[in-house]
What we know:
InterPro entries: GMPP_N (IPR049577), Mannose-6P_isomerase_type2 (IPR051161), NTP_transferase_dom (IPR005835), Nucleotide-diphossugar_trans (IPR029044). This is Mannose-1-phosphate guanylyltransferase. Residues 4-274 form the Nucleotidyl transferase domain. One of its GO terms (molecular function) is mannose-1-phosphate guanylyltransferase (GTP) activity. One of its GO terms (biological process) is GDP-mannose biosynthetic process. By secondary structure, the chain is an alpha/beta fold. β16 (307-312) and β17 (315-320) form a beta hairpin. The protein folds into two domains: 2-261, Spore Coat Polysaccharide Biosynthesis Protein SpsA, Chain A; 264-342, no CATH class. The chain has helices at residues 35-44, 61-67, 85-98, 117-134, 177-184, 200-210, 212-221, 225-229, 237-242, 327-342; strands at residues 2-6, 52-57, 76-79, 105-109, 112-113, 137-142, 153-156, 166-172, 189-198, 248-253, 258-259, 278-280, 283-286, 292-295, 299-302, 307-312, 315-320. Strands 6-9-7-8-10 form a five-stranded mixed beta barrel.
Amino acid sequence: MKFVIMAGGRGNRLWPQSAEGKPKQFHALASSGSMLQTTYRNLASRVDAKQIYVATADRYRLLALDQLPELEESRLICEPAQRDTGPSIALSALHFLRAEDDEAMVCLPSDQNVPDTDALLGALAHAAEFAEASGSIVTLGVLPTRGETQYGYIQAERGSALGRIVKVRAFIEKPSEERAIQLACTPDVYWNSGICIWKPSTVRREMKLHQPEMWRRMEEAGERLERIYGELPRLSIDYAILEKSDRLYAIPVALEWDDMGRWTSLERIKAADEAGNIVQGLVEMAGSAGNIVLTDRPTIVIGARDLIVVSLPEGLLVSSKAKESALKAIVQQLENRREESQE
Length: 343
């Protein structure tokens, strides 16, 4: 099986550290290396590095090669523009199909924290075997350990188990807190890991079924790909294919797994002080509890509770943890205002 590490997103939920010029996958959060470096090197320490590819935006090509000097440029799949995971995975499939290579590919995000790489690879090998034999799509469904409002969920059909594999019945997107707690206790419901295992020809079949115009334009583009790619719709692979397909299966896994998609993710991987504060930089806390503070300058926090404070050259964020989910939309508003002021 091949591995395609998806590293082309912008990561606005980790603003201001994750910014358009250098998004989150190129930063260190869960370990000493960047998330891209950690994901790549964890795989490369256990599988043939020639089987590992990185899919990113063309604007990040040099950044990816700088962080991964061991990566051959021929194993870098670059999108001409950032159009989300739907077009990105389609482009990766097209890359292999043109090389007449239809071996199963594992499409996995670069920004996840999975400490047990061996257990992950074991599940992926089983998924790839099923995907190769059946021509189906397989994802990993992570057994929930808490009610999580910022994750998507997948619900399996009861009584559909094929060994370790279950048929996916439905997707549930980012539920309310009450609903998330209920889902975490419901049999046959799993966190959506965002990891997909399928053959390139399966991607082609599903794109022709569910996104025929997008696939036609990409397949026929040839040297015009750079021009037409930016005209493609922004679609996640969930919306483009997975939620529509009747050939989707999942392997339930009990892994320590985290999507490093927002600041509060740090609470599960970083040690807090006795008051529950997570601090990075020269920070003095006084009468404060439950805060996340990252700063590049001397900082004092007095009498604050449950805040996120990130002070970097790229910008300043001050938010309550409870309102963290609004960050992505507000960053977009800020960028729109910046563009308007430059016109």
